[in-house]
Design brief:
The chain has one domain: Rossmann fold, CATH 3.40.50. The chain has an eight-stranded mixed beta sheet, sandwiched between helices. By secondary structure, it is α/β, with parallel strands linked by helices. Helices cover 23% and strands 20% of the residues. Strand 11 and strand 12 form a beta hairpin. Helix 3 packs parallel to helix 5. The N and C termini lie far apart (36 Å).
C-alpha cells in the first residue's frame, strides 16, 4: 500500500507564521475574510511544512481517528487517497483493512463527469486521476443506496464547528450528498494550523460531525451548548482563530 499511494507534500513549519503575517488572520477580523482569502492563508501556511512535520502529525491524527468509537463501529469507510498538502491517510486505511472494514475511495467516473466512491482492496493498484487525485486503476463502484458508515474528508480549512472549506470544486460536497447516506458520520481531518473560523457556509456546503487534528477532536455540539473537544489540546471553546 505504501508503494502504491503517492507521497504527501513535504512541507515544514518554519516559515508558516512569517508568511501568514502578510495576510490578515482569522483571529483579528474573521468577518472580513471570504473564501478566497481563507484559501490564500491556508496555501501560505502549508507551503512551509516539511516531510517530517507532515508525517509526524499525520500519525497522530491517524491515532485519533482510529480511536473514535464511530470508526470502531463502522463497517464501510470512505477515505481519500493523499495528494499534496493533505493529511496522510495510509495508516487509517491500513487500520481499517486490519479490522475487516470495507474501504471506498473517491474515483472519477468519466462518463458521468463526477467523483463516485470506488472500492479499494490491499492488492489494488492506484494511479493519478484528474487533478492528480489517486484512484484505483480498475474501479469497482459503490452500489447506489448502499451508503457509508463513516467518511474521512480532507480540506484546506476547517473550523471547530465542523464547517469545511475545500479547493473550490465542490467534489466532496456532491459526493457526500449523493452517496454517504443519512447515517454516515463525517470526519474532517486537518493539521491544527488549518483550523480557522468561523467559516462562511453556503446551503450546498456539508458540515462535518467531527474535525480531527493532531491536538484535538472537535465535535460540534447542539446549539447553545458549546464546542466539545477531546485529546491533548482539548479544553478550548469558541470558534477557533
Amino acid at each position: 500500500m505504501r508503494r502504491s499511494l503517492p507521497v504527501a507534500w513535504r512541507n515544514g513549519p518554519g516559515g508558516a507564521r512569517r508568511r501568514a503575517r502578510r495576510v490578515k488572520t482569522m483571529s483579528r477580523r474573521p468577518e472580513l475574510l471570504d473564501k478566497r482569502a481563507l484559501r490564500a492563508i491556508a496555501r501560505q501556511r502549508r507551503a512551509a511544512w516539511d516531510a517530517a512535520w507532515v508525517a509526524d502529525r499525520s500519525r497522530q491524527i491517524a491515532r485519533h481517528v482510529t480511536a473514535l468509537p464511530e470508526f470502531a463501529a463502522a463497517r464501510v469507510v470512505f477515505c481519500y487517497l493523499t495528494v499534496a498538502g493533505e493529511v496522510e491517510t495510509d495508516a487509517i486505511i491500513r487500520a481499517a483493512w486490519q479490522q475487516g472494514k470495507q474501504i471506498f475511495v473517491p474515483a472519477h467516473a468519466r462518463e458521468q463527469r463526477e467523483y463516485r466512491p470506488a472500492a479499494l482492496a490491499p492488492a489494488d493498484a492506484v494511479r493519478p486521476g484528474p487533478w492528480g487525485i489517486p484512484e484505483p486503476v480498475e474501479p469497482r463502484w459503490m452500489e447506489a443506496g448502499s451508503g457509508m458508515d463513516l467518511a474521512i474528508v480532507p480540506g484546506l480549512v476547517f473550523d471547530t464547528n465542523g464547517a469545511r472549506l475545500g479547493r473550490g470544486g465542490g467534489h466532496y460536497d456532491r459526493l457526500l450528498r449523493n452517496w454517504a447516506g443519512p447515517g454516515c458520520f463525517k470526519v474532517g481531518v486537518a493539521f491544527e494550523a488549518q483550523i480557522m473560523g468561523p467559516l462562511p457556509l453556503e446551503p450546498h456546503d456539508i458540515r462535518m460531525d467531527a474535525v480531527v487534528t493532531e491536538r484535538s477532536v472537535y465535535r460540534p455540539a447542539a446549539p447553545g451548548v458549546g464546542m466539545v473537544t477531546s485529546g491533548p489540546g482539548a479544553g478550548r471553546e469558541g470558534g477557533g482563530r
